[in-house]
Design a protein that fits this description.
Blueprint lengths: L1 E5 L2 E5 L3 H14 L8 E5 L12 E5 L17 E4 L6 E4 L7 E2 L2 E2 L1 E2 L2
Antiparallel strand pairs: 1-2, 3-4, 5-6, 5-9, 7-8
Length: about 110
Amino acid sequence: MRISIDKNIVEFMPENNTEKAEFEALWKMLIDCNGTALKLTPVGEYNPNKNDKSAAFYIEGLDASNKPPVSIVVQEDCTVWCRTCNKLVNLKKGDAIPVCCGKVMEIVD
């Protein structure tokens, strides 16, 4: 993952398919279709000279009991619905059910 900083804007650029999928899951946790956004707050310290070279962030506003949704792949063409915002999405066999408003959408047909 490449990171670019320009004044007060930080850009994260995934460099492979795994990073793209993980970043998309994070993005969907942080942003919902009602315009509400959660915040990432740094936790602890980041020291690149230690063995553990990762940085940790806390997601403000996310219920601690919430876990990132597990990808569910549909077995046939269907439509899914967001109970919060009433958004409908048509899926094809093999597509993953998307997350909307912080929750996995529901199959309606």
